[in-house]
Amino acid sequence: MNTVAPRPVNVLLGLSSSALSLDDLRELGVRRVSVGSSLARTALGGFLQAASALRQDDPSFAKEAAPFATINDLFKAGQ
Length: 79
Hints:
Elements: E1 9-12, H1 22-27, E2 30-34, H2 38-55, H3 68-74
Parallel strand pairs: 1-2
């Protein structure tokens, strides 16, 4: 990171080849981590797993669903 100092370094999180933790990146001098499309791809991955389970007549995926109370709390004013 010394070659780009003092400019901040940004890292895109969620690439399958990345083996570094956030602590590792921090120690390397990374000042900002972007999630890019990883949150959307994670959600889509969960959806695809649930759809696959449904095709196999397995409704057990529903145990992993976020409770309605948790979702409602996210939409409360000021949150």
